[in-house]
Specification:
Pfam families: YCII. The chain is an alpha+beta fold and 107 residues long. It has one domain: 2-Layer Sandwich (Alpha-Beta Plaits). 29% of the residues lie in helices and 36% in strands. The chain has helices at 16-31, 80-94, and strands at 2-8, 35-40, 46-51, 54-59, 69-76, 99-104. The longest helix has 16 residues, at 16-31.
């Protein structure tokens, strides 16, 4: 089962300790074979909408910084519970904030 784990932006400024702990966590997930991809997201974004034959492209940002998704990890795990446990461990590393987990369907 694949899950997209997203983290919302916070006011916290990362320090060397956070980078070291996150690096260790990423290495562990990679070695376990569950981490498929990870990265940070530019808060600006681009919105593409369609209505009939009309396509509209609008530059962002679209939400307040604290509401925007700032980063993600795509994981492949055996169960939803395992995804939740990874998210719990992630929150312990990065501290206060909010993460969202969504199952990814498809091959």
């Amino acid at each position: 089962m694949r899950y997209l784990m997203m983290s919302k932006a916070t006011d916290q400024t990362p320090d060397e300790k956070l980078y070291a702990e996150m690096g260790k966590f990423i290495e562990e997930m990679t070695a376990a074979g569950v981490l498929l991809a990870t990265g940070g997201l530019n808060p600006k974004g681009i919105r593409v909408t369609s209505a009939g034959d009309e396509i509209t492209v609008t530059d962002g940002p679209f939400t307040e910084a604290k509401e925007a998704v700032a980063g993600f990890a795509l994981v492949e795990v055996r169960s939803e519970e395992e995804a939740i446990e990874l998210a719990r461990r992630f929150r312990k590393v990065v501290g206060d904030g909010e993460s969202i987990i969504q199952q990814v369907f498809g091959p």
